[in-house]
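Morning, I've got a small favour to ask if you have a moment. I'm working through a protein record and want to make sense of it properly. The fold is given in discrete form, as structure tokens running alongside the sequence. Can you walk me through what the tokens say about the fold? Thanks so much in advance, here it is:
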Amino acid sequence: MIDLLAAGVSHQVGGCTNDGRPSVCRGLAADIEPDGRLVVILSAKAGFEVLAAVRETGRVALNITLPESYRSMSLLGRDAVVSDAGGGYRALVNDRYHKFREQLQRHGVPPAYTRAWYEPPDEELVAIRFTPFSARNQTPGPDAGAALPLKTA
């Protein structure tokens, strides 16, 4: 999972309100924190509905997909906390942007297309931290949906 996070994946972040209203947005970067939690960085403007749902429920879903192979994984959390400290992760966002851009360029997607997603100013970046309680292989094929083991700290 750690290798996949750093490989140039796309990030989709989802949330759901207590009354069942789902929302999804594009994440910009994700990584493992030293304490074992995941951190996901996104734009507060693009992700305002997801952020409201996560703040309301503490539940979050992260799906990551590697464009070159469609290798995908979903991770679920129920202890998510939103922080306005996302700007401190600009180096991580830039690293993930460059790797994702390289993935898409191989398929003819111009850099200007991906750059627009990664341009929010630091003060607009937020971080969602959570402990995954469930991980699933979402890569198309016979193992899609299969549970993946998680290590506990």
User: Anything to note?
Assistant: The mean pLDDT is 91.
